[in-house]
Amino acid sequence: MSIRSVGGVAVQPRHRLSCHCGAVVLELDLPDGIVDPRHCNCSMCRRRAAVVASVPLAGIRVVQGGEHLRLYQFNTMVARHYFCGRCGIYTHHQRRSRPELYGYNVGGLEGIDPFLIEGVPVNDGVNHPADRPPHDRGAG
After folding, report:
1. In sequence order, what DSSP letters do the residues of 87-128 get, joined into one string?
2. How confident is the model at residue 102 (pLDDT cuts 50, 70, 90)?
């Protein structure tokens, strides 16, 4: 699923994302719009209830407020979750399942209302393959 507009607002090829207080501003490369937006049911995502989509690591630039970004890691300590240290809003995270990608908070995209996106699927983060003991993961 690739979304090029939400509620009549176009997703720009270079779109800004900000936290609630405006201290942190990111610029995202979204040439194909919002690609594969989703929810995740892992313990972190379930609590923040954000709609997320992904971009390559080079597809996000901090243009303002890098000093306000805080890092949170848990469990396997692989995923890197970033949020604004002033207002607490989650902005993005380096994904555990695909560390070459950042997940980003679609709700932080300027002008975009994630509640207007229909049919957002849920990824099963509760049963993530990296959480199983090595002998249960299989050869793949």
Report:
1. T--EEEEE-SS-TTEEEEEGGGBTT--GGG-----EE--TT-
2. very high
